[in-house]
């Protein structure tokens, strides 16, 4: 009979011949001084019979293995396969295997179990790393070796090194980041602790409305994302195009990359691309730590927002993307908050415009009121001045007329005296002269008064024509710069801000060009 037992990097051979038991132990890298070299344990049967009971044989095996492995433990690096977990009892049953690093073939394999403290350590491992203890994970575990007469060889997991698993994944991630900055230096560079990529240097549109979503069709994270967008408190609506694919498994990175290519080839003017998935174990996110996906996201010409449910660490894709969030819901909230920020800026600008308009209206209303009062006062002053002048002219006319009348009366008396002393012809001639003088006097007085009244009417009309309201009604406009009325364009340059006041409106304008008028 020949039996071979393998434990990680250790193998044992048990050879039974003619009632004698020979155990050969070959050790590879074992830390125990008892098993550092090849040794032989020889046990001879105490009986002289040709056969023994099975219990005697298993007892001798148990005794031999106990002498070698009693009170000893080993830290073993291996992969987990054939894992099964019995939750009610808290038992883990699995195989530990070692694979050839080049061919991938199994070099060593042994069955193992974990219960009690070992199961507690596995739970702690899952909590700290976010990695479920399952098939195809690479672990560093502390084990003990024992032999039971009924259950056979037993490898028991006593502890598991969380730092080994976390460190291994982090090492792979850092290698990927180094490769990205080395091979893609034209669109990826590192600045401090941050990675500057072509994608995260893109500007998000002021309002995000059209989205391309890369996710799994049955993902709960996608449902959360969609629900958050559809039921936002502000009533925003979004146009969403779904690009469903598998978002789990390191080998599926090419599928996600292909979906990005499909988005680019669609030529649809998306505002942003959203990559989302629900939560899971740390190894479920290895897809997002791959080189090909990190490179594709870093150089993608549309801003990429990630919400891949990884609560503990950033993935390579997060670092390469425009904006990274922890969960699909957070990604949706980010988009809503971005749009809300724009709306608030518009509301704020509207409030500022209203306040400024009210201030300007109040200020210009006061200016117009002051100008109106000034015009009325000046008109009154002019009217009073010309009224006094008119009274003075009237007094002059009255006194002049009286003097003329007196003079003519004297002349009339003289003529009357002459008439009395001269013939009737002279009287008649003098009467004609008197009538002509009276007519001339009346005509002169009427023309003089009409002339003065015409001057007064002219001034009154002039005052009315000088009124800004009449000027504006005739199609003219008043031009203000810095709240000052300007009468020539000497100080106005292109780009200057002016205000044009017409009869029915006031307009703000910016001077684009200026052409000087030449007068010959």
What do you see in this structure?
The protein is built from 10 helices and 20 strands. It has 520 residues and is an alpha+beta fold. A hairpin with a 3-residue loop joins strand 8 (138-148) and strand 9 (152-160). Helix 2 (117-129) packs parallel to helix 3, helix 4 (220-230) runs parallel beside helix 8 (328-421) and helix 5 (253-265) runs parallel beside helix 6 (291-298). The model is unreliable at 1-48 (pLDDT under 50). Among the domains are: 56-166, OB fold (Dihydrolipoamide Acetyltransferase, E2P) (Beta Barrel), CATH 2.40.50.140; 171-342, 3-Layer(aba) Sandwich (Rossmann fold); 475-511, no CATH class. The N and C termini lie far apart (129 Å). The longest helix has 94 residues, at 328-421. The chain has helices at 54-69, 117-129, 162-183, 220-230, 253-265, 291-298, 316-320, 328-421, 424-466, 468-473; strands at 2-7, 10-17, 20-26, 39-43, 73-86, 91-99, 106-114, 138-148, 152-160, 188-191, 194-197, 210-215, 239-244, 272-276, 304-307, 323-325, 478-481, 484-485, 497-501, 506-510.
CATH topology of the domain at 171-342: Rossmann fold
Distance between the termini: 129 Å
The order of strands across the largest sheet is 5-6-7-9-8
How much helix, percentage-wise, in residues? 40-55%
